[in-house]
Structures are given as structure tokens and as C-alpha cells.
């Protein structure tokens, strides 16, 4: 708990959304661990978010979270304001020309389903990504040989000073599991481009994605998805396996036996258990192969 949360709340501007102090975050992350947000802000819409950011003192840290799938919140919680984009950011609207306008609070699976409903091909890979559109834009999420950069046309965002800004696809600076967006920019929506497809073909592609996940990944566990990015010309799981880390445990955290690039909470893990295990794996992989794995899971907050 943050002792001064109420004092910080008193410094913040009035909003149309909701501001709350000392909000537990474990329930919104797929790992089900971590401390509280000092202040949680759920804006009503993009205008509410922009007005809030523009009036919030610049010394107040602002962190955005989405679906919480590839997120590790440390046990000490997250100081400042945590922005969570929910109902005001979950619309998917056809805009003509085989395009969809999508809010960044939309789960990736819902984007795939909306594209299916509109007869648009090219989105089936999102059916297998356990995250949201905001995170997909930030990290160029991908699966099954496709990635976000291939379907994005334009991104709408708000700066830390409350300015509305648009980025073209080329402005985003996409590369493998990365975009060049400034860290203090919050994406609020995007235009996606598909191609016409038949319902049968789109459903078949989505089914293939789901079958692959069921067979290869521990999707019924408390996990954040892929823990580490694949190094250039390599696979993270192969390096982890070769370093003897498949099934490795620290406290309540374990590297999955089924897919050893998935780190799981076996039921009683702390965020410290999970992060320590991840760092232990990184050290063993580097000692074995000379390759330093890079975290794909985003870690935020302070240690207890």
C-alpha cells in the first residue's frame, strides 16, 4: 500500500472517468501477482485521457497497462498513476476500404473475431495472441509468421502533455517485437487494413492458430506468454532448453515443461520469484551460449 496515495489523489485534476487510490493490480495481470497501483485512472475516452494528462503535474509518473498478459508488476506496486484503457477504448468500427478503426483496449482475440464478422482476411494471427491492441502496437506483436506492422495503417495517441498525435505506419518504427514510440506516449486507437476473404478460409486460419497454441503452449497456466524475445537467427526456447532450464523452479515460479520460454506461476509465486527465475535463466543461457536473452515481458513497479 502507498501511504501517500490520498495526498497524490488530491493533486490530480477532475475527470469524467474514474480515479482510485491503492488499487490491487494482481487481479488484472495474467501472472496474478504484484502490488497495487498508487492511483488507478480509467478514462472515459481519449478526450478524458488527454485532458487528464495535460493537467497532471509533470513530476507525477504515469504508466499505462492493458490486458495485463505480458506484464509483471513487482511486489512493491507501481507509484504514481496507472492508466488502464477499458470500456471507452473497446470499439471496433468498419470505416470502408477493408479497414477497421480499433480502440487500444480491444483484446487481440476480439479484433480477430471482428475481422471475421466483416469478411476481412489477415487478422487470424491475433486469435492466438493473449493481449490487447495497445500492447500489440507498442511491441509489434505477432504470431504464426505475421505481425502487427503488416496490418496497421495509422495510430492515434496522446502525449504526456495531453497532445493528440497521429503516427503513420512508417512513423511507428516497427521491428521485431518493437516500435520506436516514445515511452510516454499512450496509443488510443488505430486503423487496420485487411483484405477480402471468405468466412470458411478465415475460420480455418483461426482454428489453425488455436490448434497450434493448444498443442505447443501452456495456455491454461498463470503465465505472461513468451518470456524472452527470440535472438537473431535463433529460438529462445532452444537456448533455454540447452542451458538445462526446462522445468526450473524458484519459489512458486517455474519455466514450463511444455514450452520452456513460458514462465508460469504454479499458484503461490511472488513477482520476485518470477523475476528472479527469469534472471537466473538469462544468466544460465549466457553462460552456456554467450547469448544474452532480452525480456519480452514488461516489468514495472518497485521491489518490496
What would your notes on this structure say?
With 304 residues, this protein is of the alpha+beta class. The chain folds into three domains: 83 residues, Uridine Diphospho-n-acetylenolpyruvylglucosamine Reductase, domain 2, CATH 3.30.43; 112 residues, Uridine Diphospho-n-acetylenolpyruvylglucosamine Reductase, domain 3; 82 residues, Uridine Diphospho-n-acetylenolpyruvylglucosamine Reductase, domain 1, CATH 3.90.78.10. The protein has a five-stranded antiparallel sheet with strand order 6-7-13-11-12. A four-stranded mixed sheet has the order 1-2-5-3, with helices on one face.
Give the tags.
single chain; 304 residues; alpha+beta; Uridine Diphospho-n-acetylenolpyruvylglucosamine Reductase, domain 2; Uridine Diphospho-n-acetylenolpyruvylglucosamine Reductase, domain 3; Uridine Diphospho-n-acetylenolpyruvylglucosamine Reductase, domain 1; 3 domains; 5-stranded antiparallel sheet; 19 strands; globular
